[in-house]
Predict the 3D structure of the following.
Amino acid sequence: GWCGSTFPRLAGRSPRALHYSVFGETRDNLPILGRFAPQGRTWYVVGDNGDGQSTLSCIAWLLPRAMGLAPAAPEEDALIAFLSPARDSLR
């Protein structure tokens, strides 16, 4: 199919995929960390595709702080707000 011919290096031996991912970038090229609605139960940790593991590690570190499950330093709170899906640069 299209996937096999377009991405031959991703071809595996299994007849069906065991994982799923989507490549995406935000308009401001920053990751998204947070909820789209304050009452929402889904938290988004996305947009690290262009920068790789360092960005993913950072936003994964911030996630429990954003959720209130771990204490956050003031600079971490500022970064959480900066990466919010409600930020002006995504509107």
In short: The helical segments are 2-6, 53-66, 74-82. The radius of gyration is 16 Å. Residues 52 and 90 are 21 Å apart (CA to CA). The mean pLDDT is 81.
